[in-house]
Prior knowledge:
Number of domains: 2
Mean pLDDT: 94
Distance between the termini: 57 Å
CATH architecture of the largest domain: 3-Layer(aba) Sandwich
Largest sheet: 5 strands, parallel
CATH superfamily of the largest domain: SPOUT methyltransferase, trefoil knot domain
Helix content: 40-55%
Low-confidence stretches: none
Order of helices and strands: EHHEEEHEHEHEHHEEHHHH
CATH class of the largest domain: Alpha Beta
Amino acid sequence: MRIDIATLFVEMCESVLNESIIGRARKNGFVEFCCHNIRDYTNDKHRRVDDTPYGGGKGMVMQADPIYKCYEDVCEKIGKKPYVIYMSPQGNVLTQQKCIALSKMDNVMLICGHYEGVDERVIEEIVDEEISIGDYVLTGGELPALVLCDSVARLCEGVLSGEECYEEESHFNGLLEYPQYTRPEVWKDRKVPEVLLSGHHKNINEWRQKQRLSRTLIKRPDMLKQYHFTKLDSKLYAQIEEEQKSNEMISK
């Protein structure tokens, strides 16, 4: 997979993309990141890529032409049109399912806006989708783009040691992840749950699934409305509800 990033801050992006698991994946060729400085595509002798907005108002707007020329350069380099995403607070909020879909694509291009955003005409001309990482506004699109790069690249083949590294994580299958523990067995009088020390894999798996359902019910009940329950899930969920009722009666 190749991800191209059109940005005003190449060094900022490179510093993140060269670190940790994603940096190793990049070095080993499992995913390719190419950062492009939008200023390299302007004809302005001062390398300006923004101007005042038509109609008045504060701030500056990034011009369409440098972004478009950067896009054309990427198209020429890869020999086809990439799937173009504009990182924008107006876009659809990034989800794990969207990350999975994007990880199956060969070429994705991310456009990072700045100032008051980019000229609407370049969005209309080349952008396939607008994506947000949350209902808030940042100073630029670089941080959202890097979040997307990390969440998508880690799903690409070879980046993690195996699919099980992410298949049981929060949101992957519609539930939150179960709690995790490591040594020591007792910490500040808190013990690791006995079932995890038992070596009984069936019991461990059922305990973990029950924890996933319980955590989702408590922290993100909205997710359960779209979750497809298996027979085991229904059995475990009934146990959770009974336990909740018992706890409520005791508290009274």
